[in-house]
Specification:
Largest sheet: 10 strands, mixed
Order of helices and strands: HHEEEEHEEEEEHEEEH
Mean pLDDT: 83
C-alpha cells in the first residue's frame, strides 16, 4: 500500500512538471555566491543500456536537484525509474513526455529533474538508435547537469510561497521551483551552484552501416514475400481439404 501511494505521488509531481523546466530556465535564475561543489560522473555498461552515476561533494548540504539534458541521443525510461525507486533510483521529473521509441534523428532533447537525497545517485539511461552511417560506431555524450541546492524549505519557511517571494525580491532573481522530497507536494526554492571538475560523459553506440541498407531491404522484402506465400499456401491447402470432405 505504501509503495503504491509513493508511486502515485511521484506520478502526480511529474504531471505538474511538464514544460516547467524550460520555462523557468528562460528566466534569471539565482546563483549561489559562496557555494562551489566538486562532482564526478561515469557512464558504465556496454551496448545500448547504461548506468549514469553522479557523485556530488555537498558537505553539509542535505540534498541537491539536478536538471539533466538527455540530448536527442539518450533517453530515460521514466516508468523503469519509478518502478526502481525502492532499488535506490532517485525520483525524476521530466519536462515533457518521453517517447522511448524515437530514433536519435527525430527525437528532441529532454530536460529531466532529478532529486538527489544522497551524494551518490545512479540512473539507467539508454541510447537511441542512430541513423545509418559509414562507421560502425558513433560517439555521443551527455553534458553535465545544472546543479541546484535548497534555499527555501519547509523546515525554515512554513509559508513556502511567501518565503520564495521574499528571497527573490531581496536578490533580484528567480529561484528554481522544484520538489524537495519525493513525498512532498509543495515545491521548495533552489539556487544554482557552480560545480567544478565536471565534464561530459561519452559512449560509443553501434550504428547501422549505409552500405548494408540494400541487403537489408532486399532481405526484408524477401521475408515478406515468403511469409505471404506461406499464408496463401496454407489457405489453399485448407480450401482443397474442405472440398475433399
Amino acid at each position: 500500500m505504501l509503495q503504491h501511494t509513493l508511486l502515485a505521488l511521484v506520478l502526480l509531481l511529474q504531471c505538474q512538471s511538464r514544460d516547467r523546466w524550460t520555462t523557468q530556465l528562460s528566466q534569471h535564475i539565482c546563483r549561489s555566491n559562496d557555494q562551489v561543489i566538486s562532482a564526478t560522473r561515469t557512464l558504465a555498461n556496454s551496448g545500448f543500456h547504461k548506468d549514469l552515476t553522479t557523485n556530488l561533494e555537498l558537505e553539509e548540504i542535505p540534498r541537491a536537484f539536478l536538471l539533466e539534458n538527455t540530448t536527442s541521443h539518450f533517453y530515460m525510461d521514466i516508468d523503469q525509474i519509478n518502478e526502481g525507486l525502492f532499488l535506490g533510483y532517485p525520483p525524476v521529473f521530466p519536462d515533457d513526455p518521453i517517447d522511448v521509441e524515437q530514433p536519435a534523428d527525430s527525437s528532441p532533447a529532454h530536460i529531466v529533474g532529478v532529486l538527489c537525497e544522497t551524494h551518490h545517485v545512479t540512473l539507467p539511461v539508454h541510447h537511441r538508435y542512430q541513423p545509418a552511417g559509414s562507421q560502425p560506431y558513433s560517439t555521443v555524450c551527455i553534458p553535465f547537469p545544472r546543479v541546484f541546492i535548497p534555499v527555501v524549505t519547509p523546515e525554515d519557511h512554513p509559508d513556502l510561497d511567501a518565503g520564495m517571494e521574499q528571497v527573490e525580491k531581496e536578490r533580484g532573481c528567480k529561484l528554481l521551483r522544484a520538489p524537495c522530497s519525493v513525498t512532498a507536494l509543495p515545491e521548495c526554492g533552489w539556487e544554482e551552484v557552480t560545480a567544478v571538475g565536471v565534464e561530459d560523459v561519452c559512449s560509443a553506440v553501434p550504428v547501422g552501416m549505409s552500405q548494408d541498407l540494400p541487403i537489408v531491404e532486399i532481405t526484408a522484402v524477401a521475408a515478406v514475400l515468403v511469409g505471404f506465400s506461406a499464408i496463401v499456401y496454407v489457405m489453399f491447402c485448407r480450401k482443397e481439404k474442405s472440398k475433399a470432405t
